[in-house]
Amino acid sequence: MTRPVIGTIGTRVALALANLLTVMAASHHLGAGGVGTISLIVLGITLVLLLNNVVGGGGLVYLTSRHGTHALRWPAYGWAVITLAAALLLLHLLPLVPEAYIIHTAVLAFLQSICTIHLGLLLGRERIQAHNGLLVMQAVLLLGGFLWFLQHGAAEVMDHIRAGYLANGTTALLSGIISRDGRQADHPQRPTDVLRALFHQGGMAQAANGLQLVNYRFTYYIIEGQLGSSFLGIYAITTQLAESTWLVPKSMGQVLYARVSNLRDQLAQRDLTLTALKASTAIAVVAVGVLVLLPEAVYRTVFGGEITGLPPLLLLLAPGLIAMAASQAISHYLSGTGHVRHNTIGSGIGTLFTVVLGLLLVPRMGLAGAAITASTAYTASVLYQWVVFRRMTGLRALDLLPHAGDVDRLRSLWKNVLGR
């Protein structure tokens, strides 16, 4: 039991720590403006990956056991090439990243797409340790490469891009070797059937992910356009710190999804989800409280003198962060019971609030307006999920109070899923 638990949580902690150290290095050496530019590049890569993952994303995990890695690998590679061409066109037409970094963003996205394909194939064969190890290696190479390039020559945004080539290129190559599998599927199908299955599995999931990404990050572009890259750098650091409060709730949500998917007792599904919701919310309240109460001087020491005003922004984000922690339980319940469309609708509601409020509040209130926008959008999305969850399960207000049975259900959750 202990080893899978440590692997699941430990990988997330290692990734979060490596990412935080990378941001710290960027803020100290490049300032808030450099962090802002890097944030736009990373966001551009993420947008390209949304398109790639329609074929090369989570659908590979589900289909690997049914079609074999060989049948899935080449259609996924072909789609990654198409995605690269689409990315170059999109990034030239829309001002999503600074013009000087368009080609680098597209190529880095392509390398990351190849990594995603290989990692999906590994997950599909349940090679969890290899998958986690490669993710940690990628993050460590990015951090180590970035620090090395910063120390050898004038510090610039290109140092982060060079480190990205090192990390993504090495991971793409090594994961490609590790993910090779000469076995054939028990019932191989025609390439057209495989491609159709990939689109079917990935399409709906990416629609929800795309809306959620807009919900999380649309304000980045408003801030860049209205306030400049230095303000974006401050807000990007704020959001990265804020979203670290979801580390345990997200891990718990993934475990819950696996358990709910295998339960047939609707009452047990409901009670387990409700317990995870209470635990996730409590953990988020504590984590958010710590971030809000840390003195300004601590953040200035960690991230550099240009990074100011984080505690007030975190306080404005707090209601939405706690709401999204609760969402990690509800959304995985909805997915595990076959009602994933409600997650898509919830993301769509949040996106609507993000776009409307972002355009209204950021020009008038600056970063405070961005934080209010995010918190309101997160809360609106979760309120919809809560209404659906309550209607489906018949919950009462008293059910939200903690009780002794919650402890037993949490213990069962970890033992029965991660302890197998």
Can you put this structure into words, describing what you see?
The chain is built from 15 helices and no strands. By secondary structure, it is an all-alpha fold. It folds into two domains: 189 residues, no CATH class; 200 residues, no CATH class. The C terminus is likely disordered.
What attributes characterize this protein structure?
mainly alpha, 2 domains, 15 helices, 0% strand, globular
**In DSSP terms, counting alpha (H) and pi (I) runs of 4 or more, how many helices?**
15
Question: Helix amount, in percent?
Answer: over 70%
**Which structural class fits the helix and strand makeup?**
mainly alpha
Estimated share of beta-strand residues: under 5%
Number of folding domains?
2
- What kind of sheet is the major sheet? none
In summary, what is this structure?
The protein is mainly α. The protein has helices spanning 2-56, 59-67, 69-93, 102-124, 128-151, 157-178, 191-226, 229-243, 247-262, 266-293, 296-303, 310-336, 341-365, 367-393, 404-418. The longest helix has 55 residues, at 2-56.
Ordered list of secondary-structure elements with their pairings:
Layout: H1 2-56, H2 59-67, H3 69-93, H4 102-124, H5 128-151, H6 157-178, H7 191-226, H8 229-243, H9 247-262, H10 266-293, H11 296-303, H12 310-336, H13 341-365, H14 367-393, H15 404-418
Helix pairs in contact: 1-3, 1-4, 1-5, 1-7, 1-8, 2-3, 2-4, 2-7, 3-4, 3-7, 4-5, 4-6, 5-6, 7-8, 7-13, 7-14, 8-12, 9-10, 9-12, 9-15, 10-12, 10-15, 12-14, 13-14
